[in-house]
Amino acid sequence: MVKSILVVQGGGRAHGNTAQLVERFCAGARDAGHEVEVVSLIKNEVRGCLGCNACRFEKPCIQKDAFNDLVPKIRAADLIVFAAPLYFWTIPARLKAFIERFYCIAQRDPNPPYGRYEKYPVHDSALLMTAADDNFWTFELAVAYYRQAIVNYIGFNDRGMLLAGGCGSTNDGPQIDKTDHLEKAYEFGKGIYPL
Predict the structure, then answer these.
(1) Nearest Cα to 121, choosing from 111, 109, 139, 129?
(2) From CA 190, how far away is CA 24, in angstroms rounded?
């Protein structure tokens, strides 16, 4: 069955490690027959939540940026892939701002599970990240945020993660091609929905 996949690229250089990882993931997913769209938060500005509550329970956000245009894409996607380089041991500010703005697609829920205050449209999700370092703790904070905010709180169904560490020094340009991460990304995309 063909799935609609929205990849949200939350940072990185135009042809950097993250962009290459996303490209290979998308190639695999397309080869498996899925529809894939990539949205760059560098090209589509999404500012952080103001906490004003004007959007509460499915009203549009009052901020005039790209997020309101992205809401129909978010709603239509079967899978939302969060993709970013590691910045200061967690996800970049652009991607966090995008996630914060999900507040305006929350729906009223009289019996919210797990301590939530509301419910969100249910989607599948995945995480793609790159980093120069490759220590056992390199992605710990980013993974914890993804699991807590996206999976536990918003309630998305996790389809997996590809944490591509060891992509070289940030001063020496992209070096992901010297690893096996691009091949893994292709296989991840191709097998994200097993036939």
Answers:
(1) 109
(2) 10
Bridge partners, residue 152, by sequence: none
Q: How far is CA 19 from CA 15, 30, 79, in A?
A: 6, 16, 18
Q: What is the pLDDT of residues 39-52, one digit of tens each?
A: 999 999 999 999 99
What pTM did the predictor assign?
A: 0.95
**CA-to-CA dists, residue 30 to 19, 27, 128, angstroms:** 16, 5, 17
Distance CA 167, CA 185 (A): 14
SS3 percent helix, strand, coil of the chain, rounded to 5, is 35, 20, 45
Distance CA 165, CA 138 (A): 8
| Entry field: residues in the chain | 195
Give the relative orientation of helices 181-190 and 17-31 as an angle to the nearest 10 degrees. Answer: 30
From CA 162, how far away is CA 53, in angstroms rounded?
Answer: 34
What is the rounded distance in angstroms from the CA atom of residue 146 to the CA atom of residue 183? 23
Query: Residue 168: helix, strand or coil by DSSP?
Result: coil
Amino acid occupying residue 3: K
Are the beta carbons of 176 and 23 closer than 8 angstroms? no
